[in-house]
Every structure is written in C-alpha cells, then in structure tokens.
Amino acid sequence: MSLCTAAAGPPAPVRLVQCQRAGREQGVAVRQLEPGDRAPDFTLTDPDGHQVTLSALRGKRVIVYFYPAAMTPGCTREAGDFRDSAGDLSASGFTVLGISPDEPARLAAFREQEGLPFTLLSDPERKVLEAYGAYGEKTMYGKTVVGVIRSTFVIGPDGTVERAYYGVKATGHVARLRADLGV
User: Fold this and answer.
1) Which of 14, 62, 75, 164 is catalytic?
2) pTM of the predicted model, to two decimals?
3) How far apart are CA 87 and CA 123, in angstroms?
4) Residue 139 within any structural domain of the chain
C-alpha cells in the first residue's frame, strides 16, 4: 500500500509528493497533476521524425496517454482500445497523443502493425513522463520497480488539466474514460 502526501514548498503547477510504503519513506518524489493545473508543455518526435508540441494544439481538447512499451500485450490492448474509439473521440473534438520511451522507429512499427490512427510520440529521456508524474515507483508482479506509470490526462483548450488518471489498467481504461467524457 502506498501513502503519498504533498511536500511543503512554494506553490507550483505540479505538486511534489513524497511516498511511504509499509511504514518506511521512499527516496523517490512523484509529481502529480490535478485538474486545474497547467499541463506541462512539451515537444517530442513522432514516428515520422516530425516534432509535435502540445502548445500548438491550444484551442483543442487533447487526451495524452502514457504507456510503458510499444508492442507489449497490455500496451497493445490499450492502444487498440484508443484505435477503436478514435472516430468517436475525434467526432467529440478530442486529439489523442500516446507517449512512451520507445524510439520513433519502434513507434512506426507499432503504428503500422496495429493500424493506429492517432499520434505516437517518443520520450526516450523520460522528461515528459517525469513532468506528468508518469514515471516513478510502481508495483509490478509484487515487486517495487521504477518505470512508466500508465497514466492518462485530458487537457482542455486553454492548456489546463481537466482530468488526471494515474496507475490505470490497460483493459477497460478507455471505456471508463469515454464514459467520464460522455463520448
């Protein structure tokens, strides 16, 4: 079980959280975004080598989802759910961006293999993952590891976070997101 509390300090658009597990403090601070926070801007590379910048999408609602690795079972399932919902999400005014630490060439293969109609972005240095709190300690197969925390954010037209989902499951997450958004 994980207990996280906000760290003291000056107000910032991202809250630092110190986590404790089983009564002992962990040395990893986790960033957590909340509705109303300004979404951290980023520029990342897509599978075709083009740069995509979040702030260039101002005026649109954007779903940014973070996943651990292309072409793995859970990530393929989640990407397939976004693919199968892409038409309805687009018709409702949403742009979908998927971000992982994979290199662009791997993302290109994943996009082609799964027929993904939305933009995948490469964050091999994990800077955007960290800015969104989507990289840090997590439990995997009963062990505490550091890695990508499957997370999804809905960014409003003004660049603020409307919804933040941390530690989501690959299966069923997109259906829940659609229900929450009324899509």
Assistant:
1) 75
2) 0.82
3) 26
4) yes
